[in-house]
Design a protein that fits this description.
Number of helices of chain A: 12
Number of domains of chain A: 2
Strand content of chain A: 15-25%
Structural class of chain B: alpha/beta
CATH architecture of the largest domain in chain B: 3-Layer(aba) Sandwich
Helix content of chain B: 25-40%
Shape of chain B: globular
Structural class of chain A: alpha+beta
Distance between the termini of chain A: 30 Å
Number of strands of chain B: 10
Number of helices of chain B: 8
Order of helices and strands of chain B: EEEHEEHEHHHEHEEEHH
Strand order of the largest sheet of chain B: 6-7-8-3-9-10
Largest sheet of chain B: 6 strands, mixed
CATH topology of the largest domain in chain B: Rossmann fold
Shape of chain A: elongated
CATH superfamily of the largest domain in chain B: P-loop containing nucleotide triphosphate hydrolases
Number of strands of chain A: 13
Oligomer: heterodimer
CATH class of the largest domain in chain B: Alpha Beta
Order of helices and strands of chain A: HHEHEEEEHEEEEEHEHEHEHHHHH
Largest interface: A-B, 27 and 32 residues
Largest sheet of chain A: 9 strands, mixed
Helix content of chain A: 40-55%
């Protein structure tokens, strides 16, 4: 007996009891729908977390701090950084050095008309910039052996964030007119450019300090511009990167000039480790914490915590759905038992005509599985519709008070990934199959003599 | 020639509560290939039990049944299913057609269990049905056919895979005597044509007029086992005057109701057909 024949027989048997089949399928539809929607809410929370975190920076970055896990003394120096960069899955580790005794003001224009007041300045290993996967909008990364600023008008090589120009304010104007920001338009709706064009205007770094301090003045030589990418971090917006050694030299020059006495600065407050994949972040972070002893602040530790919460939510919601699918399974058992009771004689006839008991078992398992499969498919279909509607009306729903019940961190209330839709259909079919085992066993036990029995 | 069916010391005891009921007492039988064999006896004589035993539908308490040299009493359910597919056919008293299937599909059922592809088995089934004079009923469901037509479908189903032995349990028990004659003659023709051994249980003695062998049971024992030398080649209805009157009356009634149906629900296309084929 061929499988196509078995399928046709099963289908025909379900079809002739339309009403009963439909009711049983409806049970599975509701069960599947509930599970999928409930889990999709949990997943949406997760996706929302990730969206939120990503807007805060690259999730593959681990920030290592210059202090120990339990407040213990540790040395975050070049050796430690070298150790980290040798770990598996680590693309690159580099200090993000921000000078302790030196801060710069970035100025431009005639008589320093445009100023930033403060500039986000990082000293990093020059070769690391590319490996951190910052994308260039124009120009090039820092050269491995850059020039040391010297001479009368010393120039310092830098790579800057795309929108650095917007950090400048106009000192000659007051109020709102002193600022420019991304997306700002004039009365006619034309976009206003920043006061300073980072590619063509001359920008100068001036050290800040008390008035009688001697000032360091460097002209910026913009080698490259980083493509703005909020997922990578704020530095692609308005950061200034320079060679770590150059920055250290500038700082020591400044300290010498102003007679600042301090310990040598061969340790770092902050080192950034870039991991190849988000899933390996946890392991690397654990190693740095446990084996190297440094405190870390990766986004992934946040992510874990948040995922733990949403997993709990998914479990509770999914559990509710599972209960209704379980009830549906019971109704499949009931339907199949009824159907077998009604078809006792038919089963006997089939046996007498030479239908093997294995085929009879398969026949009923197929029928039960078909109920599960149909229910699963319809259930996932309805889930997609409802999910779409939920997301479509999300802003409205959030306002009308649902937001108090359902946390919404991202742009969606409900997310159904492919694995969930495939998995739920498979699961519903499996439920049908399992529910069919008992009735099918009973069908197999029906005696061939039933066919002979007279009414 | 070796007998196709051999029964050795067959005993069947049913347990009803605390009591034991002996349905068959140590039966010994031999049936030859191609025989048309009738098992007769009063109700309770054990004839149905014997048929169930011969067909392997029940296990004997003691003794054995072998068909074509295979001891079916020793077979597992699985082996029996395969054996039935290849060697046995069945005709039931209450037709036992599957209600969801058309005539063709019902006849093709044993072939389906054997694994014959759909197109081939349905062609074979259609051919068999045409032989039975049901060429116009191929796509009809059992509920759309008369008892005689249903039973002819049942017979076609038994013969379609050309089995060696066909068992029939009161195949005409639900039919009127006129239809009985038609059905019996169809069976006779097919068994003789294909040299099929046919074993029929009946309590109507006159059905055995065409039999090659008549086995008479009484209280679970073989009372007589007669080999008939020159059986009748055709089955004829022997009607008493009372029967004839009854048949005429019934025919009249049927025609009336047909006419009413035709007028009532507009099934004009179907009803003349029904009348003419109504055996």
């Amino acid at each position: 007996m061929k499988i196509s024949d078995l399928l046709a027989l099963s289908y025909e048997n379900l079809r002739r009891r339309k009403g009963r089949t439909a009711l049983t399928v409806a049970g599975v539809v509701i069960g599947t729908f509930l599970i999928v929607i409930m889990v999709s809410l949990g997943i949406a929370v997760n996706v929302g977390f990730d969206e939120m975190l990503q807007s805060m920076g690259d999730l593959r970055k681990i920030t290592v701090y210059g202090w120990g896990v339990n407040g213990s003394e540790v040395q975050l120096n070049d050796d430690a950084v070298a150790q980290m960069s040798k770990l598996d899955h680590v693309l690159v580790a580099t200090p993000y050095y921000q000078p302790r005794y030196l801060s710069f003001n970035l100025v431009a224009g005639k008589n320093d008309r445009y100023q930033t007041g403060y500039v986000e300045l990082y000293g990093i290993y020059p070769e690391a910039l590319e490996m951190m996967q910052y994308e260039l909008k124009s120009g090039s990364y820092l050269p491995e052996k850059g020039t040391v600023p010297s001479g009368n008008k010393p120039k310092v090589q830098v790579v800057v964030g795309e929108q650095l120009g917007y950090n400048f304010t106009d000192t000659k104007k007051k109020g709102e007119n002193a600022y420019r920001w991304q997306g700002m338009t004039d009365a006619a709706g034309n976009e206003l450019p920043p006061f300073v064009d980072i590619l063509s205007d001359t920008m100068t770094l001036k050290s800040q300090g008390s008035e009688d301090d001697k000032q360091l003045v460097y002209q910026m030589d913009v080698l490259g511009v980083l493509l703005q990418d909020n997922e990578k971090g704020y530095e692609t917006y308005g950061g200034v990167f320079m060679d770590l050694n150059v920055l250290k030299k500038l700082e020591s020059d400044y300290m010498r000039m102003n007679n600042i006495k301090a310990e040598t600065t061969n340790t770092y407050d902050q080192v950034v480790v870039m991991v190849d994949d988000i899933d390996n972040v946890e392991a690397v972070e654990e190693y740095i914490n446990d084996e190297l002893g440094f405190q870390t602040g990766g986004m992934s530790s946040w992510r874990e915590q948040m995922q733990g919460q949403s997993q709990m939510l998914q479990l509770i919601l999914g559990g509710l759905g599972a209960v209704s699918l379980f009830v549906a399974a019971l109704s499949i058992v009931n339907t199949m038992s009824m159907s077998i009771l009604e078809r006792t004689r038919e089963i006997g006839v089939m046996k007498v005509l030479g239908c093997g008991i294995g085929k009879i078992r398969t026949l009923f398992l197929l029928e039960a599985s078909m109920i599960g499969l149909t229910g699963g498919l319809l259930g996932i279909g309805i889930s997609y519709l409802v999910s779409f509607a939920l997301n479509h009306f999300a802003p409205f729903l959030m306002m009308s008070g649902l937001g108090n019940i359902l946390p919404m961190y991202g742009s969606k209330i409900s997310v159904i990934p492919v694995w969930l839709s495939v998995g739920s259909v498979f699961f519903a079919t499996l439920i049908g199959f399992v529910a069919g085992i008992l009735p099918a066993g009973r069908a197999v036990k029906i005696s061939a003599l039933e066919a002979i029995r007279h009414e | 020639m070796a007998p196709i069916i051999k029964v050795d010391n067959l005993r069947k005891v049913y347990r009803v509560g605390q009591e034991k009921v002996v349905a068959l007492r140590d039966i010994n039988l031999e049936i030859e290939r191609g025989e048309f064999c009738c098992v007769v006896g009063a109700s309770g004589s054990g004839k149905s039990t014997l048929l169930n035993q011969l067909a392997g539908l029940e296990k004997p308490t003691r003794g054995s049944v072998s068909i074509g040299g295979h001891n079916i009493s020793a077979m597992s359910e699985k082996e029996l299913a395969v054996f039935r597919q290849h060697h046995l056919g069945f005709v039931f008293q209450s037709y036992n057609l599957l209600p969801t299937m058309t005539a063709v599909e019902n006849v093709a059922l044993p072939l389906m269990f054997k694994g014959v592809p759909k197109a081939k088995r349905e062609a074979m089934a259609a051919q068999q049905l045409k032989k039975m004079g049901l060429g116009k009923r191929l796509k009809h469901k059992p509920t759309e056919m008369s008892g005689g037509q249903q039973q002819r479908v049942g017979i076609a189903r038994a013969f379609v895979s050309k089995p060696e032995v066909i068992f029939a349990d009161e195949p005409t028990g639900n039919l009127d005597s006129h239809t009985t004659a038609k059905v019996m003659n169809a069976i006779l023709r097919l068994t003789r044509e294909n040299n099929i051994t046919f074993i029929m249980v009946t309590h109507e003695r006159d059905l055995s007029s065409c039999a090659d062998r008549i086995i008479t049971l009484k209280d679970g024992c073989v009372l007589r086992n007669e080999k008939i030398e020159n059986p009748a080649q055709e089955f004829e209805v022997q009607l008493s005057p009372m029967d004839e009157e009854y048949i005429a009356q019934e025919k009249q009634e049927r025609e009336n109701s047909d006419r009413n149906n035709a007028a009532g629900d507009g099934q004009t296309a179907a009803s003349p057909d029904l009348k003419e084929n109504h055996v």
